[in-house]
Structure formats: structure tokens, C-alpha cells
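To whoever is covering the structure queue this week,

Two jobs came back overnight. Logging them here so there's a record in the thread.

Job A:
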Amino acid sequence: MDFSLLLHALTSYFVIIDPIGTAIVFHALTDGGNRSYAYRMAIRAVIISTIIVLLFGFLGEEILTSLGISIASLRVAGGLLLFYTAFNMITSQQQEKHCVDLQVDISVYPLSIPLIAGPGCLTLTILLFADRSLPGQTTALIIAILLSYLITFICMLTARHIRRLIGRTGDEILRHLLGVILAALAIQFIADGGRQLATG
């Protein structure tokens, strides 16, 4: 297994999914509900997101090819999208939205899409899977995805404690830091895609 790719992919997913930030939003959405409701929403959101991301990993490139879109073009477009996401992470103010009706199923929206399996995450997945050439690399990417969503699930279940531990100020600092890292990752995607387009 390619451990360097595993580390790279795990770091990338951790940055773009932001399990701690997700846990704080999850706590706001389920605040006031019972633990079984929160657990049910968390596990459904993680399962749905994992399936969506894996499907995009294995089928995304074929879909793009059928549409006549090259991986180099996707790198540039994906890099711009990731940079936009990073820019919003750095500059925007986070707003906590509370779920009014605790019987509503929030596992698909907003938890899975756009929170933990949004466009940025799906773009990142296609780009990472497009570079795999050995069986060990595919295994590393699958493990990275599973670990990322396992960490996210654990953070969701302990959201109340995380919110109390880091507070709003700590969440703002973490979100801005992860935004800077994601921006750097986006610039790298744009540079790689531009280089591939230039060399034809």
C-alpha cells in the first residue's frame, strides 16, 4: 500500500471535510433532540457520503470522459472550486443553523450534501483517483476515505463535548487555518492542470 498517498489523501479529506467544524454544525442542527435522533442522523449521513464519494472515485473519470472533459481541465476547474471554498472558509462568518423540526431527516441535506460530501470533496476525489496507477494506491485512497468519515462520525457523536472544549473562537481559528491549507492545495491542482494543458 502507498502510505505517502494515504497520508496525502487523508490530510486532503480532513481539510476539506473539516470533521471538527462539521461536528459543531451538527450539534447546532440536532441541539435539543434526543441522542438516538443525533446518532441516527450521524450514521446515515456518513454512510450516504461514503457511498457517494466512492462512486465518484471509481466512476467519475469515466463520466467525465464520456462528456469530453479531460482530467487536466478538471484539475483547473476543481482547483478554482476548492480555492473558492477555501476563500469562503477564511473570510466568511460561520452561522449556526438550528433544526426547527427534529423529526426532519437532515442526513442527506445539509449533512451529506453540501457539508461532508459537497462539490469540493467530490472534485478532490475524482482528482485523487485519476492519479492512481497501482492497486496499492487504490487501496490507500479507499482507506483514506473510510478513515476520514470514521473520524467525522466520531466527531459528530462527541459534538457536544467538542463544542464545549474549543468554543466558537477555537472553531474560527481552526476553520481559518484549514482554509489556508485548502487554498494551497487548490493552487497546486490549478498549477498541475495548467501544466498538463500546456504540454497537451
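Job B:
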Amino acid sequence: MTTKFNDKGFAESDGIVIVYVIDSEREYIGSLTTNVSTGTSLPGDSYLDKPPEAKVGHAILRSEDGKSWIQVADYRGQTIYAIDGSGPRVVTQPGDIIDGYTLLEPSTAYDEWNSKKWVTDTDAEHAAAVTAANAEKKARIDAANDYMNDRQWPGKVALGRLKDEEKAQYILWLDYLDALEAVDTSSAPDINWPTAPEV
């Protein structure tokens, strides 16, 4: 038998009611049929009024005052991006996108938010590319020098003890070093690195 509740929320008779339940975050999680006794109230976090069907991309919550159902945007599982560039995070709660974040993903690590969209700071991007190219150039030069020093070519040539085959190789590596030194890193990231001689 279905029961009614008085204006204070207590059952007027024993009976069965369908209730609509929320979780600790006030989100609707489903309905259940429960028995109530005369003079008792509904189980905690449950309500008699049926919630509306959720619109696509929305979640159903109980209002803060507990008097009605509300629909809120639901971006859970989506990644949002901090407009101050501090990084992304995944949305875990229903509701609007929190202040200081956007669903728009920056296209580079050098993008800045202009209040509507991401704009790439091309000067910063280029400066970083030049720094990386300078490091790459130094690493290649160091590796070439290490290769020649491991074979003791500079010392052997100074003493006139370099064999013809070694001398030919040494010249190829010196040419490679000259080509590396000539690389203009200001054109980064568009650099055609010279190819090291075969070993």
C-alpha cells in the first residue's frame, strides 16, 4: 500500500514508497522502493519527487536547499587546461568548468591564453628551439672530438705517425667538425645537421 507524508515529512500510515536517492555530492544515483512505518520519515538522502531526465552532457543534482532537482553541466572525464599554463587536469565533479581553466587544448608548450583562445608566443618558442639546437651542436662536436681523441689521431699527426688510411679518416672527421661549427643555430628548429663520417 502506498503511503502519504504530512507537511513535516512523516508517514501517515505504513506503506511502500518509491524514493529517489542522491550521493554525498548531491548527485542523483537512482531510485528504490522502500517500506515506511507510520510516523517515520524517508531514508536519508532520498526524496519523493522524481528527477527529470538528464539532458545530454548534464547531470542531475539535488539543489543545496534540498527542495528541487537541478541540471548541471557534466564534463567528468574530460581534460581541462589551466589558462595560466600550469597544466591540465581531468574533471572529476559535475558542474561548470572551474574558473581559470578551459576545454581548449594549447597546441604548443609556448601558448598563452588571450581571454578567448591560445596564442603561441613564437619568440619564446624560437628561443627554446635555438637553445636546444645549441645543446645539440655542442653534443655533436664533443662526440666527434671524443671519437678522434680515442684514436689518438691529433697526437699521431703531430708526430708524423698517422698512416695514410687513418689520415684520410681524420680529414673526413675534421671536415665534419668544420661543418658542425658552421651550423647556424638561429634557424632552429629548421636545421640540416651534417652527417658524421661512417665508422
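Note for Job B: Residues 27 and 161 are 85 Å apart (CA to CA).

Please reply-all if you pick these up so we don't duplicate work.
Q.
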